[in-house]
Specification:
Helix content: 40-55%
Radius of gyration: 18 Å
Order of helices and strands: HEHEHEEHEHEHEHEHHHH
CATH class: Alpha Beta
CATH superfamily: P-loop containing nucleotide triphosphate hydrolases
CATH architecture: 3-Layer(aba) Sandwich
CATH topology: Rossmann fold
Number of domains: 1
Structural class: alpha/beta
Number of strands: 8
Distance between the termini: 45 Å
Shape: globular
Strand order of the largest sheet: 3-4-2-5-1-6-7-8
């Protein structure tokens, strides 16, 4: 980022509140909103939350950033930030708190909203409950530059709704055949929901099980891309790959993003490099607003009730 870009980022947005938790009023639709990226995966265990935590830490150095843990009821994004949220989306849907009340500061320029843990019914929220969350996010968006969604794994309607509502979707997979299959399945469902979506693909844990080097990641991308082109008529875009790295295991144990705990490690260096084109891609987005798009897509009306 050059100095001119940095200065533009530092210019305050109209109506921005220094502390979004103290601003309960809805902002005008004309305000600039955080650009959003949903970090998703077809299956669990691909390292999606690790990627989200590190990208959020890197983006926070560029501008105010919010992590939204959308793994409802079994969220763990707060663990990698070493914070203990006092409230979560569980409190929102149970009527004990507004979305703004659940914002938890993590470090300078970085906040988090927790999904809550151990509440099974959160995996299947009603239209009204999702609408409550969407409206709350819509009110918070103008206070941030970046919004990162740590998505639930899989292809549930709720998971795909968050992905389809984001400006960009980053699909994280590994060279494992089941992860590759599930990455394609996720892309298929996402494109069915939002045909214009062009997800980015990140191959994690290159080096695991004998899959070594950048070319291994490229080969995984090519396999998924070919299948998508054949059966969906579209293909994802390549973002890059991350190496298998013991530093990731150590950073999780320390409850910190790997770019914070071991910034010189191979995986952290790769994440730092990948964050640059990702930030550039986000800079080209129209800032539609995740919350605002969710509100529109849900099309909830109290007169119609839950759907």
């Amino acid at each position: 980022m050059d100095w001119n870009q940095a200065l533009r980022r530092m210019q305050p947005r109209p109506g921005r509140d220094a502390d979004p938790r103290r601003n309960g009023a809805s902002r005008a639709a004309s305000l600039r909103r955080a650009v959003s990226v949903c970090i998703a995966s077809g299956k669990g265990g691909t390292g999606k939350s690790v990627v989200t935590a590190s990208l959020a830490a890197l983006f926070a150095a560029r501008g105010r950033t919010l992590i939204v843990d959308a793994d409802m009821g079994v969220g763990n994004a707060h663990i990698l930030q070493d914070v203990s949220p006092r409230a979560s989306f569980v409190d929102v849907v149970q009527g004990r708190a507004a979305v703004a009340d659940t914002v938890t500061p993590c470090r300078e320029g970085l906040d988090l909203i927790s999904a809550g843990s151990g509440v099974s019914r959160m995996a299947g929220l009603s239209a009204y409950e999702l609408h409550l969350i969407a409206q709350g996010l819509q009110d918070l968006e103008p206070a941030y530059e970046y919004l990162l969604v740590d998505s639930a794994a899989g292809i549930s309607d709720q998971t795909v709704a968050f992905a389809a509502g984001s400006d960009l979707v980053l699909v994280v997979t590994t060279p494992d055949p089941t992860a590759i299959t599930d990455a394609y399945a996720f892309i298929k469902v996402l494109v069915g929901k939002r045909p214009e979506a062009v997800p980015l693909l990140l191959v994690n844990r290159v080096g695991e099980g004998g899959h070594t080097g950048e070319h291994s990641g490229v080969r995984v991308f090519e396999r998924i891309s070919q299948v998508c082109l054949k059966f969906l008529g579209c293909e994802p875009r390549w973002l890059g790959s991350l190496p298998e790295d013991r530093a990731v295991v150590d950073s999780v144990a320390a409850r910190l993003p790997v770019v914070v705990h071991e910034p010189g490690s191979p995986c952290a260096v790769a994440l730092q490099a990948l964050s640059v084109p990702l930030a550039a891609e986000l800079g080209r987005q129209a800032e539609a607003g995740l919350g605002r798009r969710l509100v529109r897509d849900l099309d909830y009306s109290p007169r119609r009730g839950n759907r």
